[in-house]
Every structure is written in C-alpha cells, then in structure tokens.
Write a structure and sequence with these properties.
The chain has 2 helices and 9 strands; from the N terminus they run ββββαββββαβ. The chain is an alpha+beta fold. Helix 1 crosses helix 2. It is globular and about 45 Å long. It starts with a strand and ends with a strand. The C terminus is likely disordered.
C-alpha cells in the first residue's frame, strides 16, 4: 500500500542583507522511500519557474531540530527556541530557510504514526543528507528557491 504524507508549510528565506522573504513549501514523506523527506517548492518560488524538490534523510531533519546536523548539501540546525533553519546548497547558490520548529515536529510525529503502517523494508542510509542526483530529481531540481514576498513567521 502506497502512503504519502504532505504538509504545506511556510518558510522564511533569510537573505544576506538581513531581509526575510516568505516562501511557500511542502514537506512530503512517502512509503516507497520512508527514510527520506522531500522539501518541495512550487514553480512560483523558483528561479527558473519550475517546481524544485530537495530530497534528504529524515534523520537529518530530526537531528537538526536538536542541534546542528550537516548532510553535505543540506544543513539543519536550531535557530532560537522556536525556529529551525535549513540551508540548501547547490552549484547555483545557497538558500537559508527558517521554519517553525513546532510545525516540523508535528510533521515528523505524523509520519511516525503513519510510518508504523508502512510495510516497506528499512534499508540502511548510506550517506545522511545528500541529495539524490539520479531520476527525476536531477541538477535543475536542486536550485535554491527564489522568493518575492515578505515573511511573517
């Protein structure tokens, strides 16, 4: 049985000049890859007008809620008592995004509940936090998001 958990989530893009811009995002876990999280940005939030998906280890997100976690091109760490930052790095540039920690915990908790029903075998994670570069998530889908609005998070 295929199961997918999707949660729309707002994020703030933290710019180098101390501005904060709102970015729509969606977190997704699926039963066909239960150890990974997909962070999806819609076409309106990307530099090239196409949906952007970053795939990284769910364990990286879990660890990053408690302390700094480095997965190579994705870094996650607490940002004060109520927020968590996710840094996405690619050859095109980098993006530092701030999320509400409670919303991230809620998403992971929901997946833990749903994941109990997932019958997919658990495979060991070879490298925590690296992006997948084969299949539909090729280099163009790894670009950091572009944004155009102010942030209220």
């Amino acid at each position: 049985m295929y199961i997918s958990l999707d949660q729309p989530m707002g994020a703030c893009l933290l710019t180098h000049d101390q501005r904060e811009l709102a970015v729509p995002a969606n977190l997704r876990c699926t039963s066909d890859d239960p150890l990974s999280v997909r962070l999806v940005f819609p076409a309106c939030a990307s530099l090239d007008g196409e949906e952007v998906t970053w795939v990284f280890a769910r364990a990286l997100l879990e660890q990053g809620l408690e302390g700094p976690a480095d997965g190579g091109s994705v870094r996650v760490r607490p940002h004060g008592p109520a927020h968590t930052t996710v840094e996405l790095r690619a050859s095109e540039g980098a993006a530092l995004l701030r999320f509400d920690t409670t919303a991230l915990r809620r998403f992971l908790g929901r997946w833990a509940t749903v994941g109990e029903r997932v019958a997919a075998p658990v495979a060991p994670v070879r490298t925590i936090g690296t992006q997948r570069t084969s299949g539909p998530l090729g280099p163009a889908s790894r670009r950091p998001p572009a944004v155009r609005r102010s942030c209220a998070i």
